[in-house]
Amino acid sequence: MHKPLINISPYQVFGFCLAITFFELLTYMASDMIMPAMLTVTHDLNASGRHVPYAFNLYLAGGILLQWLIGPLSDQFGRRPMLLIGCGLFALSCAAAFSVHSIYAFNGLRVIQGMGLGFVIAVSYPALQEVFCEADAVKIMALLGNVALLSPLLGPLLGSLLLEWLSWRQLFLLLGIGGLLVWLGLYLFMPETVGTSRHDGQRLAAVPFEWRGTVRRYAALLGNPRFLSASVALGVMSLPLIAWIGLAPLLLIHNQGLSPLQYGLWQIPVFAAVILGNLILNRLIADTELPQLIRYALWPFCGGLLALLASSFYGASTPLLISALAVYAIGLGMSNAALYRLALFSSDDSKGLVSAMIGMISIAVMGGGGSLIAAAGAGDNHESFALMAAIAGLMCLLPLRLFLRRSHLPLAA
Asked: Which of 19, 84, 91, 390 satisfies CB 3.0 to 4.6 Å to 309 for a cystine?
């Protein structure tokens, strides 16, 4: 790892990265760990089972609800105080669920808990980019991507295991205690990047928050073709994986009659492939330009999706489906962190605001696209899923081509 861009000791660097990693892990785990207990939650709170999916959907809604505001506020008041506020809010809302007695209060707390994810995206990600050089920042973002992608696999399994000894109320209390420990880690180790002098003599100036000015800045980002194409591409590239996370229980457990354990085991090749892609990225990043790295990643990315498309016409068995998804996932792991970095610096505006907009656009694309794929019947059988997921993923080539062309780098080598 190269020397940080600001004056910070190796000990503080390690503590800062560790605290950020655990905060992201907690925010993602909080969305998945509670799902196995949701029928018990609705029973204890005398609520209808129709509230079960709200636990996840409202959490995601909270994740994007205030990103547009959190980012610009961190540009003025600094990354450190805003992330401490976000972590504290997350910890308190998790602990508050211990004593909740109404399903509507529970649902409201899920929205507040989900806001923690918004703070991770809009505040901690820009802070990492401002502390480290390009190569190190991309490596750390790839590591955080692994944390996010492992959560859908480990969260429900860990939640089911803990619920053997804990009630759902105690599980939320445990998350709150974890949030408090992370808050202490951030308080002790997180540096401030806004207004801090760098080793090159430059200083990242604070940007005063002003309503009309913020609206104009967001409008300018939407009018920036390079930024918009990169942000949309980020969301579309992840669509096959998002669709798989949402529909795998239906495809494997409901349709194929597999047990939850077998379902979990079939997830391992897909998510391990993402991690492998991130490891390849870490290997190449020191000697490879980011646009060129994305071009390399398109080989496994498109190869896996084309195999997925072919399987939809010739019969998509579970091993074949998983194999094609794994090849695609290698390309996704290689490209995701690199494309995020390029999107973040495709605008000269403050990075808190830019990061917030990237998060809102990419999450909206993933959420909306995933819902459309599910509504179109991709969960009916393997062939339908393979067809729709492959087409959705390959659609990223258009915005990606536009972005790389405007970067004066063609899509093909």
From this structure: 390
CB neighbours (10 Å) of residue 289? 13
Q: Quote the CA–CA distance of 120 and 126 in Å, as a whole number.
A: 9
Domain 1-209 of CATH type 1.10.3720.10: no
Single pTM value for the model: 0.76
Q: Are 32 and 155 in contact, with CB atoms under 8 Å apart?
A: yes
3-state secondary structure at position 268:
helix
Structure confidence at residue 409 (pLDDT): 44
Residues 6+ apart with CB under 8 A from 106: 41, 45, 55, 97, 100
C-alpha to C-alpha distance for 249 and 154, rounded to whole angstroms: 14
Give the number of other Cβ atoms within 10 Å of residue 160's Cβ: 15
Of the listed ranges 9-23, 141-155, 192-206, 384-398, the least confidently predicted one is 141-155
Read off the tokens for 204. 């990242």
Confidence at residue 413, expressed as pLDDT on a 0 to 100 scale:
35
Q: Distances in Å between the alpha carbon of 365 and those of 65, 132, 167, 238?
A: 15, 29, 35, 9
What are the residue ranges spanned by the domains of the chain? 1-209, 225-407
pLDDT of residue 153: 62
Distance (Å, rounded) from C-alpha 387 to C-alpha 372?
14
Question: Measuring CA to CA, how many Å separate 346 from each of 79, 215, 273, 355?
Answer: 21, 19, 28, 11
Looking at residue 203, what DSSP letter applies? Answer: B
Name the residue among 351, 122, 74 with its Cα closest to residue 221.
Answer: 351
Question: Between the CA of residue 155 and those of 3, 25, 27, 355, what are the distances in Å?
Answer: 35, 10, 11, 26
**Farthest CA pair distance, the chain:** 62
- CA dist 37 and 167 (Å) reads 9
Amino acid at 192: E
Tell me: the pLDDT tens digits for 90-136?
999 999 999 999 999 999 999 999 899 889 988 988 888 888 887 78
* Residues in CB range of 134: below 8 A, 6 or more apart: 290, 341
Q: What is the pLDDT of residues 180-239, one digit of tens each?
A: 999 999 999 999 888 787 776 677 788 888 888 889 999 999 999 999 999 999 999 999
CA contacts within 13 A on the Cβ side of 6 = 19
Angle among Cα 376, 379, 384 to the nearest 5 degrees reads 70
Is the CATH number of domain 225-407 3.40.50.360? no
Of the candidates 117, 3, 118, the residue with the CA atom closest to the CA atom of residue 70: 118
